[in-house]
């Protein structure tokens, strides 16, 4: 009788253990959904009771699931974002153009970019953006005026000049092939760009005979070219990126101003 009881007890416990193992196997074999959002892997486990278990795993974590490792740990081959630039403008050309003061001749720009990286040593960046030319004259009393035959410059005699400049804004597109070092700490890119003028004006800030600060504006486009095109160079060292733009065509329309080409350089933020 005792032997029978022992045998029955053993069979009962074995059955319970097998059922627990079977239940564990069932849970392990439940459907698992795996996807990623913003470089984070998300695993959704559906349980037998109808509930779901969510697990969020950073992309930097080492995955032991070999079936998903190749998909989630693959190298990113493209990136998008927004660049801000702050540079300085000057122009190069004939001697009849007024001298430009670098400090204050700002060239701010904002660009949306898309970068394709087929491998670690090469990338191709496409940019769409807006930039602003500002040319601040060394001679604060030299005013840029718009006449029927073009832009001309003359001395201002009705007060003491504080600031005199002309400006123009452009919508631009650029294509920059870039080579990179193996660790990405050094980058060099060069490529073409083109721009379409959006606006422009002349501005003089001065003090009148009573000492009051006043402004005069020359509206219109100051005969700046409607279209610009040129070459762009980008150099990156570590976390610092610099740029230089040079317009192949002249700043002003033909026979409407000095024969000068624009040069801009600065930092990419």
Please explain how this structure is put together.
There is one protein chain. With 269 residues, this protein is mostly beta strands. It has 2 domains: 30-74, no CATH class; 78-268, Porin (Beta Barrel). It contains 2 helices and 14 strands; from the N terminus they run H-E-E-E-H-E-E-E-E-E-E-E-E-E-E-E. It has helices at residues 2-28, 66-72; strands spanning 32-37, 40-46, 52-58, 78-93, 106-119, 122-136, 142-147, 150-155, 160-180, 186-207, 213-218, 227-237, 240-247, 260-268. An 8-stranded antiparallel β-barrel has the order 4-5-6-9-10-12-13-14. Strands 1-2-3 form a 3-stranded antiparallel β-sheet, with no helix packed on it. A two-stranded antiparallel ribbon has the order 7-8. Strand 1 and strand 2 form a beta hairpin. It starts with a helix and ends with a strand. Residues 1-29 have low confidence and may be disordered.
């Amino acid at each position: 009788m005792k032997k029978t009881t022992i045998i029955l007890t053993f069979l009962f416990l074995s059955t319970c253990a097998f059922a627990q193992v079977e239940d564990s196997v069932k849970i392990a074999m439940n459907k698992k959904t795996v996807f990623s959002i913003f470089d984070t892997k998300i695993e959704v486990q559906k349980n037998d009771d109808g509930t779901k278990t969510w697990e969020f795993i950073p992309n930097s974590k080492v995955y032991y699931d070999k079936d998903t490792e190749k998909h989630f740990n693959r190298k990113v081959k493209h990136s998008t974002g927004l660049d801000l630039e702050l540079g300085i403008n000057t122009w190069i050309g004939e001697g009849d153009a007024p001298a430009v003061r670098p400090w204050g001749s700002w060239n701010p720009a904002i660009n949306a970019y898309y970068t394709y990286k087929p491998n670690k040593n090469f990338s191709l960046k496409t940019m769409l953006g807006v930039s602003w030319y500002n040319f601040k004259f060394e001679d604060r009393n030299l005013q840029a005026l718009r006449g029927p035959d073009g832009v001309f410059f003359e001395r201002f005699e009705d007060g003491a000049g504080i600031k005199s400049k002309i400006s123009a804004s452009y919508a631009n597109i650029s294509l920059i092939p870039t080579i990179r070092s193996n660790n990405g700490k050094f980058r060099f890119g060069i490529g073409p760009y083109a721009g379409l003028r959006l606006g422009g004006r002349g501005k003089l800030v001065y003090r009148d005979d009573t000492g009051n600060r006043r402004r005069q504006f020359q509206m219109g486009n100051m005969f700046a070219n409607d279209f610009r095109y040129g070459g762009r160079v980008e150099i990156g060292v570590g976390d610092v990126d610099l740029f230089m733009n040079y317009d192949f065509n002249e700043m002003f329309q033909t026979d409407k101003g000095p024969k000068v080409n624009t040069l801009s350089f600065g930092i990419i933020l």
